[in-house]
Every structure is written in structure tokens, then in C-alpha cells.
């Protein structure tokens, strides 16, 4: 049913293009507008018509998966993937393809274009993350325990 593919757009879809709207939303959630982003999904980006997934001065990103065949004629692509790694933030757009099965059978590579949105000035290491700090605390605790054992403060047993 093609009717299920139609997107009803409310005022948010006009307001989301404005940087001041994105800044206000980020601040409302206690986030720093200089470093935070709003990530939207679900709504197809009409790349064929020149629409960009980057909105509000780069503060809002629309990353609809778009793998659904029903949308590929509208969008011109097969969706986006947002990638964050130790080097920075990247946006990959995927070219339409017939099917994963056909790609495997015909040995066809899926075409992806990657755009660097933000590059970290220094590479983020595990130790620089919340999880990394938790791991370091556990290491410190274990080293203290080992020291106490070797010093005879803890008896085996």
C-alpha cells in the first residue's frame, strides 16, 4: 500500500532546518551545542531533489536507513549510516542495490560515499571515554589488591 509510504510533515520539519532551533533543543537537554548533535531517522532524505541530510548548520543529521525499496526511487540512494570512531564523525551514503543476495551472487560491491563531518583534533582513545575511565579504576583497584597481597596484608585462604 503506497499510502503507508507517505510522510505527513508537521512544523518540526521546517523548524529543524534552523540552527537556532537545534541549539535550543540541545540546550533544553543540557547538551553543549558546540559539540552535540541531533540525530533523526525514519524520514527519507530526497537526495535526488538536492536535499542534504545535514541540517541546522550541521547540528542536526538525518540518517534514514533508506534500505527499503519503496523509498529508493524517491531518495535516489539506499540510505545513510552515521559512523563515529576515534578519528571523528562520518556520514556514509549508500547507492541503491538490487538485493544482498544478488550482490553476493554477482560479486558486486555495494557503493558507499563517505563524508567526514568532524575530525577529532586528537584521536580519542578508550582511556579517554567513560568506559575507559571505569576500566582504569578497576585496574587501579586490582593493582592495589595485588600490592596488599604481596605485602602480606592479605592472607590467602
Structural topology:
Elements: H1 12-15, H2 19-28, E1 38-40, E2 54-55, E3 60-62, H3 69-75, E4 80-85, E5 88-94, H4 100-105, E6 112-119, H5 130-150
Parallel strand pairs: 1-3
Antiparallel strand pairs: 2-3, 4-5, 5-6
Summary?
The chain is α+β, with helices and mostly antiparallel strands and 157 residues long. 31% of the residues lie in helices and 18% in strands. It folds into 2 domains: 2-124, no CATH class; 125-157.
Explain this structure to me?
The chain has helices spanning 12-15, 19-28, 69-75, 100-105, 130-150; strands at 38-40, 54-55, 60-62, 80-85, 88-94, 112-119. The chain is an alpha+beta fold and 157 residues long. The chain folds into two domains: 2-124, no CATH class; 125-157. Strands 1-3-2 form a three-stranded mixed sheet, covered by helices on one side. The N and C termini lie far apart (70 Å).
The H/E string reads HHEEEHEEHEH
Distance between the termini: 70 Å
Shape: elongated
- Please give the domain count: 2
Query: Helix segment count?
Result: 5
- Structural class by sheet pairing and helices: alpha+beta
Q: Report the major sheet.
A: 3 strands, mixed
Keywords:
about 160 residues, elongated, three-stranded mixed beta sheet, 2 domains, alpha+beta, 5 helices
Amino acid at each position: 500500500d503506497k499510502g503507508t509510504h507517505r510522510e505527513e510533515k508537521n512544523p518540526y520539519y521546517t523548524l529543524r532546518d534552523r540552527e537556532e532551533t537545534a541549539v535550543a533543543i540541545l540546550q533544553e537537554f543540557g547538551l553543549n551545542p558546540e559539540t552535540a548533535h541531533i540525530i533523526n531517522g525514519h524520514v527519507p532524505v530526497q537526495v535526488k531533489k538536492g536535499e542534504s541530510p545535514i541540517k541546522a548548520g550541521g547540528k542536526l543529521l538525518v540518517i534514514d536507513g533508506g534500505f527499503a525499496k519503496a523509498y529508493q526511487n524517491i531518495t535516489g540512494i539506499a540510505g545513510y549510516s552515521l559512523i563515529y570512531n576515534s578519528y571523528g564523525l562520518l556520514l556514509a551514503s549508500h547507492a541503491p542495490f538490487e538485493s544482498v543476495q544478488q550482490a553476493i551472487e554477482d560479486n558486486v560491491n555495494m557503493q558507499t560515499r563517505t563524508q567526514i563531518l568532524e575530525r577529532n583534533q586528537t584521536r580519542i582513545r578508550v582511556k579517554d571515554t567513560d568506559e575507559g575511565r571505569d576500566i582504569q579504576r578497576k585496574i587501579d583497584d586490582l593493582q592495589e589488591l595485588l600490592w596488599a597481597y604481596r605485602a602480606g596484608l592479605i592472607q590467602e585462604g
